[in-house]
């Protein structure tokens, strides 16, 4: 694998020149639009035969879209795809699979009511006449799994699998179809550290057998650990291609973000005052979580016996790999799901009831999913600016249209929402402007606790700064803030204290000054277990 | 003893249209296509059968024409809900209205009557009706559909498409094609239910399906979308109906209450009071999202 | 420009659907050897072309507007009420019961509201069943409302046939009070038509629903539930309660529809009077784009087709109208997603 050295290096677009290794797949000038959104804008990627290639970029950079174009799920609006030198632009999933290109999606493409073996063979069944040969399928699937060191219960229903098992079933599925090019979309997002190590073992074994692997990720340590070569995307475009051996995490990060960034071990660039807590501590906590347990929809525990205090005048940031209970924790506090046991208290009062009661008690909530929760996409800006506050804007059950419009005009001005027309439909706004509606609405409530979940996800840089400023302002007014973000840099930039959530428990709570990325990373990945508790 | 035999034979005869239509309904619903159309498919089959039998003088040609009519309706349902992603519930109801209207229209044009067709060649009613080959065809259909759904490749694919179409698509299957196949099968089978009705009575009468398609749909749900359980539900509903006929005139239980049994049981099943009825996950959702 | 966009998106599908139905109507008429122009002329003449026909359109539109509004309010909340047929029958039955039970001399100003309330209660009771089952157990309202149609009709059949009928008939005795005034009292030219003041009641109901949907907080919350239940829940709305309330209200509105026939026309409850108006309510709501004003116009359209069908019977079997109504519904169901997709494309191309 050392023959990549002559390939392009950091930040330079060196075209597809790769000597010594044949090109497995190459996409050039790919453009893909969804409505007004341009997900890929002349994106390129060249993957050499037999390498592990990392495709990195921030959330929303267009990585998944590009890979879906490659695997035939989407037809590109412009650009070409070459597979082993042949033009295959616009091929279908079926053709791509037939040619040996398989993709493991972030959301698994498995039918929950069928068994692992049935899922694996679906579309390429082992037949006896018109009949499905179940025993034969299970044997064949077990064989493929064993060959690559993947441990899956072939006869079990997918609905009964753990996440790790389901992912392995997905990989077996693509291998069973004869994949020689395997694309994995954020495979580690749902895995525990030991499972991640197992996955790396499998991928290395596949590479040794001549399979080409593309891994989508935004985690730099993974890139360094597993990949031979890296392609970096930003805003739908390819901005850099490099050989992993010749690069550093800092170079990759700079390419991802487009400027110098703070990395592990650096001094925090943003001077958040981590002292706020000391003067607050004398008072009673605003939010008290006492031993709360929250279940997921499928009944498995998402949050287990968690306790945490958040005081007025501080921002407590929750760090953690996604899927460790962050969503469920916030929704339980907001009254959108119920706790199985334990108490949630706000200003000493135990919270009960629904979201409406929580608002009345003094909670403001910036939800993590503005498309599902935070906005009614077909409502206009003015109606969205009163969502959850509709009682403030009505008298005896009748909406006060004048007040609603007046409010819209004010908030649009104050928060620079564009277009500046109250009757613009929220669903047609950019992500940043949509989030400004949510921020404008929530931060102008009367509240003592702000729940901010992924407050800057999919938001442009200008809006990010505004949102961060507003969150700090809330803290400076003496209110409590509980922040959840998948972006560790954001948690570190804003928080006064940082709690690490791992498997539904708080693995550590650290003052900002003591929290380095290494320490947090160790707790986030379960390397150090529950030290602070 | 004979009383029981008569009861069983009559139950079987009454259950035939339900067995056909419910078998079709299971296939379509498992593929994710809502089957409010069974009623219309059935009525179209009845009319097609009478038309075919009338002009050819052969009951078997009637069967083929009935199947053709069902396929025609199924094609309409398929194109509207699969190609155009129209709301399947709305389209289903419209197809039922369409078939009622169209059969009345054609009844006037071809037979000059608003209520019924002339007598046509049908199947023998000897042996308490058990000589009718369609009764045995219905039983074979139930067994065949059960075998297909549980053991064949096609059955596996249909189940995958109705449960998680995106996964089926990612596996290289054509969701649309499979759904067209499933709707066509449901059209043919439900139409056969109507064919049986018409050829058993040797004529077409206005709106002769009389809600049987909805009873079949009730059986599909009560049978929790499995062909064998749905068939058992059909027989249960038919037995209740037989009881109602045989008790006619007695005052033990008003007939209307026996008529309600299938519907009440279905509502109870949906409420989860006797084993939760959980529909296929992608039921009624167009496309592959 | 926003309102223009929305108007195009709302009006284009019904116009397209109407066009499809007209073209198919032409083909059908020509296939039986008649001249489409002549048939359509007769159709219009038999409905809007003379006072009696017009009044009959009003009469038929009244029931359809009630069931259309019922379906529309449900759909606005994201619940599909297919049970308007049974709710309409139950409402008519309860109106008749109230009219029978109230003393004969009772002033109409008092008797009519009582009868209307009874009709609303009858329909609401039927609508509440799927409402409870959906809110409590998550049972899908489409199947439950269909099943309820059969259950309610069987139940009413039992009560009327066994206990309440005038011998040898399938209707109840005449009501003692609560009858609605015929419009022919005000416009003599309407003589012979059953059109009655229920038409004004449905206009008032449409106005009230418009007010509820677009001016009241409850309507804001109800529409949010219909568009995005998760966002509504986040907005402090009890989604399950809204589903229940919407299905119950929907049932009540369909139930009030029963007064048009029972209080305004026959003066008694008669087996089978609903006659498909509940199912057609789905079509009316669909063509009317779930907007109260649209529903009124859609009801007039469907009523015109039904009434006009009687006038063309000499040339073409009147059932052609049933066929065309069904075609209109299918074309409408097809063109709604299609128009939205095309408009999306146009917007993209422009942008």
Task: Write a structural description.
The complex is a heterotrimer of chains A (about 525), B (about 290) and C (about 350). Chain A is of the alpha/beta class and about 525 residues long. Chain A contains 18 helices and 24 strands. In chain A, the strands form six sheets. In chain A, strands 6-9-10-3-11-12 form a six-stranded mixed β-sheet, with helices on both faces. The radius of gyration of chain A is 25 Å and the shape is globular. With about 290 residues, chain B is an all-alpha fold. In chain B, about 70% of the residues lie in helices and about 0% in strands. Chain C is globular and about 70 Å long. Helix content of chain C is about 75%, strand content about 0%. Chain C starts with a helix and ends with a helix. Chain C contains 14 helices and no strands. Chains in contact: A-B, A-C, B-C. The interface between B and C is large, with 42 and 48 residues.
The termini of chain A sit apart by 45 Å
| Mean of residue pLDDT values of chain C | 93
**Helix-strand makeup class of chain C:** mainly alpha
Instruction: Kindly estimate the percentage of residues of chain C that lie in beta strands according to DSSP.
Output: under 5%
Radius of gyration of chain C: 21 Å
**Terminus-to-terminus distance of chain C:** 14 Å
Number of strands of chain A: 24
Portion of residues within helices of chain C: over 70%
Strand order, sheet with most strands of chain A: 6-9-10-3-11-12
Shape of chain C: globular
Helix run count of chain A: 18
Question: Over all CA atoms, what is the radius of gyration of chain A?
Answer: 25 Å
Biggest interface, chains and residue tallies? B-C, 42 and 48 residues
Average of pLDDT of chain A: 86
Order of helices and strands of chain C: HHHHHHHHHHHHHH
The share of residues in extended strands of chain A comes to 15-25%
Which spans of chain A have pLDDT < 50 for at least 5 consecutive residues?
1-17, 262-277, 529-533
Task: Give short descriptive properties of this protein.
heterotrimer; A: about 525 residues; alpha/beta; 6-stranded mixed beta sheet; 18 helices; globular; disordered N terminus; B: mainly alpha; 11 helices; about 70% helix; about 0% strand
Write a brief structural summary.
The complex is a heterotrimer of chains A (533), B (289) and C (351). Chain A is an alpha/beta fold and 533 residues long.
């Amino acid at each position: 694998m050392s023959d990549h050295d002559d390939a392009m290096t950091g930040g330079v677009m060196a075209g597809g020149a790769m000597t010594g290794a044949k090109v497995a797949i190459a996409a050039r000038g790919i453009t893909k639009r969804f409505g007004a959104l341009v997900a890929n804008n002349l994106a390129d990627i060249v993957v050499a035969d037999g390498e592990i290639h990392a495709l990195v970029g921030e959330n929303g950079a267009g990585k998944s879209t590009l890979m879906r174009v490659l695997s035939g799920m989407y037809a590109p609006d412009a650009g070409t795809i070459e597979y082993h030198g042949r033009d295959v632009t616009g091929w279908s999933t079926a053709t791509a699979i037939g040619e040996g290109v398989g993709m493991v999606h972030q959301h698994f493409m498995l039918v929950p009511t069928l068994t692992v073996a049935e899922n694996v063979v679906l579309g390429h069944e082992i037949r006896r006449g018109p009949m499905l040969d179940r025993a034969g399928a299970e044997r064949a699937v077990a064989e493929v799994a064993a060959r690559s060191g993947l441990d899956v219960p072939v006869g079990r229903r997918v609905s009964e699998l753990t996440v790790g098992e389901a992912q392995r079933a997905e990989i077996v599925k693509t291998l069973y179809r004869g994949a020689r090019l395997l694309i994995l979309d954020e495979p580690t997002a749902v895995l525990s550290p030991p499972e991640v190590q197992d996955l790396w073992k499998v991928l290395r074994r596949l590479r040794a057998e001549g399979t080409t692997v593309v891994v989508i990720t935004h985690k730099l340590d993974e890139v360094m650990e597993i990949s031979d070569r890296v392609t970096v995307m930003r805003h739908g475009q390819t901005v850099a291609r490099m050989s992993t051996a010749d690069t550093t995490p800092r170079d990759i990060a700079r390419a991802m973000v487009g400027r110098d960034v703070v990395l592990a071990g650096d001094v925090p660039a943003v001077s958040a005052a981590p002292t706020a807590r000391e003067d607050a501590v004398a008072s009673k906590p605003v939010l008290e979580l006492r031993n709360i347990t929250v279940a997921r929809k499928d009944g498995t525990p998402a949050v287990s016996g968690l306790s945490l205090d958040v005081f007025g005048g501080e921002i407590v940031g929750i760090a953690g790999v996604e899927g460790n209970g962050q969503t469920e924790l916030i929704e339980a506090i907001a009254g959108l799901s119920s706790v199985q046991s334990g108490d949630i208290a706000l200003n000493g009062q135990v919270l009960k009831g629904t979201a409406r009661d929580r608002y009345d008690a003094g909670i403001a909530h910036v939800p993590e999913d503005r498309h599902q929760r935070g906005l009614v996409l077909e409502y206009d800006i003015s109606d969205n600016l009163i969502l959850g506050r509709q009682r403030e804007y009505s008298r005896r059950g009748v909406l006060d249209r004048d007040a609603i419009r007046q409010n819209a005009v004010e908030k649009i001005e104050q928060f620079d929402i564009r277009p500046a027309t109250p009757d613009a439909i929220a669903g047609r706004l950019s992500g940043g402007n949509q989030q400004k509606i949510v921020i404008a609405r929530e931060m102008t409530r009367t509240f003592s606790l702000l729940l901010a979940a992924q407050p800057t996800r999919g938001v442009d840089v200008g809006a990010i700064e505004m949102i961060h400023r507003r969150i700090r302002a809330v803290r400076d007014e003496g209110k409590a803030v509980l922040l959840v973000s998948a972006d560790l840099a954001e948690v570190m930039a804003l928080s006064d204290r940082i709690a690490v959530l791992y498997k539904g428990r708080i693995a550590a709570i650290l003052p900002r000054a003591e929290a380095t990325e290494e320490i947090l990373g160790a707790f986030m990945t379960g390397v150090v277990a529950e030290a602070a508790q | 003893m004979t009383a029981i035999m008569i009861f069983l034979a009559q139950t079987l005869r009454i259950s035939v249209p339900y067995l056909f239509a419910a078998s079709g309904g299971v296939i379509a619903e498992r593929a994710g296509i809502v089957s409010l159309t069974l009623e219309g498919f059935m009525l179209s089959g009845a009319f097609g059968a009478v038309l075919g039998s009338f002009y050819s003088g052969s009951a078997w040609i009637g069967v083929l024409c009935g199947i053709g009519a069902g396929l025609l309706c199924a094609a309409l349902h398929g194109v509207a809900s699969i190609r155009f992603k129209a709301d399947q519930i709305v389209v289903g109801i419209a197809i039922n209205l369409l078939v009622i209207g169209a059969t009345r229209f054609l009844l006037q044009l071809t037979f000059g009557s608003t209520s019924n067709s002339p007598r046509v060649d049908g199947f023998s009613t000897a042996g308490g009706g058990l000589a009718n080959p369609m009764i045995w065809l219905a039983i074979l259909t139930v067994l065949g559909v059960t075998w297909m759904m549980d053991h064949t490749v096609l059955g596996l694919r249909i189940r995958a498409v109705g449960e998680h179409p995106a996964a089926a698509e990612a596996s290289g299957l054509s969701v649309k094609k499979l759904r067209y196949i499933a709707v066509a099968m449901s059209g043919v089978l439900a139409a056969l239910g109507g064919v049986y009705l018409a050829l058993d009575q040797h004529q077409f009468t206005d709106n002769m399906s009389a809600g049987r398609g909805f009873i079949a749909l009730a059986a599909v749900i009560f049978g929790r979308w499995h062909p064998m359980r749905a068939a058992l539900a059909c027989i249960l509903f038919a037995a209740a109906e037989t009881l109602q006929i045989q008790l006619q005139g007695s005052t033990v239980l008003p007939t209307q209450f026996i008529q309600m049994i299938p519907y009440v049981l279905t509502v109870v099943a949906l409420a989860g009071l006797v084993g939760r009825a959980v529909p296929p996950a992608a039921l009624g959702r167009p496309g592959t999202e | 420009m926003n309102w223009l966009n929305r108007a195009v998106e709302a009006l284009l599908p019904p116009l397209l659907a109407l066009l499809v139905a007209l073209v198919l109507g032409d083909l059908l008429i020509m296939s039986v050897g008649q001249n489409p122009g002549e048939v359509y002329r007769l159709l219009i003449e038999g409905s809007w072309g003379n006072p009696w026909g017009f009044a009959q359109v009003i009469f038929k539109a009244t029931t359809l507007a009630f069931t259309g509004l019922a379906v529309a309010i449900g759909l606005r909340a994201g619940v599909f009420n297919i049970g308007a047929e049974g709710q309409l029958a139950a409402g008519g039955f309860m109106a008749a019961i109230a009219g029978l039970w109230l003393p004969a001399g009772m002033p109409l100003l008092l008797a009519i509201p009582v009868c209307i309330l009874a009709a609303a209660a009858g329909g609401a009771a039927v609508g509440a069943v799927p409402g409870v089952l959906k809110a409590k157990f998550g049972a899908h309202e489409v199947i439950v409302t269909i099943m309820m149609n059969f259950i309610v009709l069987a139940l009413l059949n039992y009560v009327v046939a066994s206990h309440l009928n005038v011998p040898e008939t399938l209707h109840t005795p005449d009501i003692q009070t609560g009858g609605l005034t015929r419009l022919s009292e005000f416009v003599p030219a309407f003589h012979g038509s059953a059109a009655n003041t229920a038409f004004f009641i449905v206009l008032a109901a449409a106005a009230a629903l418009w007010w509820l949907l677009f001016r009241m907080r409850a309507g804001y919350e109800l529409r949010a539930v219909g568009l995005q239940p998760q966002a509504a829940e986040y907005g402090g709305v009890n989604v399950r309660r809204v589903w229940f309330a919407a299905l119950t209200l929907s049932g009540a509105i369909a139930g009030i529809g029963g007064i048009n026939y029972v209080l305004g026309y026959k003066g008694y409850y008669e087996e089978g009077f609903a006659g498909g108006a509940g199912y057609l309510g789905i079509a009316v709501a669909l063509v009317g784009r779930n907007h109260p004003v649209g529903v009124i116009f859609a009801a007039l359209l469907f009523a015109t087709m039904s009434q006009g069908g009687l006038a063309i019977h000499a040339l073409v079997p009147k059932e052609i109208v049933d066929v065309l109504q069904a075609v209109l519904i299918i074309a409408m169901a097809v063109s709604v997603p299609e128009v939205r997709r095309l408009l999306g494309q146009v917007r993209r191309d422009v942008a």
